[in-house]
Recover the amino acids of this structure.
């Protein structure tokens, strides 16, 4: 499938939950004609019917059209996720299990005052690179909390493309912990010096440009990663220290999520397929930053309910956090509510 794809012309919050095919193409900058138009329209109308049917059920979340509404679930998962199935791994960068500690009543690392801890929502594009965005995002936050990369103070945007070109997984999916292991030995480039292209081929290792970028996090600053115990209290405890890389199970409901608290208990036959970042929680939900741009969901975020077992499969695999030298300090009062 080859279409011309431009940025949306309006924010998702301003969009009606459903609209006609021609209006959707205009609103989202798609120019499709001929047999492909007929095919895409049929998929779109199937998704419209799904949105209307699910919203009528009175869920705590609401579905609506977005830039993915012309794709089937299988097409969407192939193009815009990138998490691999459950795995147990241990290597010399595995710093062990994070100990459970203090838990405030609420945490939000996106709202900590003048110095940002979580950067603007990024967009992985049509590339299975969620693993890279999840790893880079939690590392950006950990470094900001520690006080910078050494060359800069506070938050700085780091390079996902470095991982695609140099680590070996590319757009075919991967694991955030593998990315953090790579950073330990190779350092991290700034995004400004190694910008994101959303492209990768098996030959991309030949184009790894880490020797030409601005390495703002030298090798050894990242010492590895720690796993978070697979429980909701343990995830809350970890979030009192820093944002956390988590994995989720994405389906059509997640694809077309517009707003509200997304409640989905992980079924026995479901497995994770997407990596994201937990940035906080309250009494009812975890606040999660995605990598599909700010036009998806609630400004690029989704709230995942805490009232079901293993919500959205976030406990299928251990969440992870980067470990730094020296270690990131403990709880930060600016982000937590007692």
């Amino acid at each position: 499938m080859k279409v011309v794809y431009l940025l949306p012309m309006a924010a998702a919050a301003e969009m009606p939950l459903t609209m006609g095919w021609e209006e959707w193409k205009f609103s989202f900058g798609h120019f499709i004609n001929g047999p492909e138009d007929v095919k895409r329209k049929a998929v779109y109308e199937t998704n419209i019917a799904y949105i209307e049917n699910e919203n009528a059920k009175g869920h705590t979340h609401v579905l609506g059209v977005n830039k993915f509404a012309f794709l089937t679930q299988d097409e969407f998962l192939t193009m815009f996720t990138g998490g691999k199935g459950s795995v147990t791994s241990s290597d010399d960068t595995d710093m062990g299990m994070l100990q459970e500690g203090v838990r405030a009543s609420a945490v939000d690392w996106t709202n900590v005052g003048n110095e940002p801890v979580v950067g603007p929502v990024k967009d992985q594009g049509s590339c299975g690179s969620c693993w890279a965005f999840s790893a880079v995002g939690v590392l950006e936050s950990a470094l900001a909390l520690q006080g910078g990369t050494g060359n800069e103070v506070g938050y700085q945007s780091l390079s996902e493309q470095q991982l695609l070109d140099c680590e070996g997984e590319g757009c075919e999916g991967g694991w955030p912990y593998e990315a953090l292991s790579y950073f330990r030995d190779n350092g991290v480039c700034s995004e400004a010096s190694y910008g994101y292209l959303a492209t990768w081929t098996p030959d991309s290792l030949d184009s790894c440009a880490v020797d030409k970028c601005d390495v703002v996090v030298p090798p050894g600053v990242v010492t590895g990663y720690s796993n978070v115990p697979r429980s909701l209290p343990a995830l809350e405890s970890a979030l009192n220290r820093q944002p956390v890389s988590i994995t989720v199970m994405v389906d059509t409901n997640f694809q077309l999520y517009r707003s509200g608290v997304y409640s989905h208990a992980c079924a026995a036959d479901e497995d994770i397929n997407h990596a994201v970042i937990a940035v906080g929680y309250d009494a009812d939900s975890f606040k999660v930053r995605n990598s599909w741009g700010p036009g998806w969901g609630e400004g690029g975020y989704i709230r995942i309910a805490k009232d079901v077992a293993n919500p959205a499969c976030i406990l299928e695999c251990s969440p992870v956090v980067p470990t730094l030298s020296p270690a990131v300090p403990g709880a930060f009062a600016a982000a937590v509510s007692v």
Notes: The chain has two domains: 4-70, 79-337. Residues 4-70 form one domain.
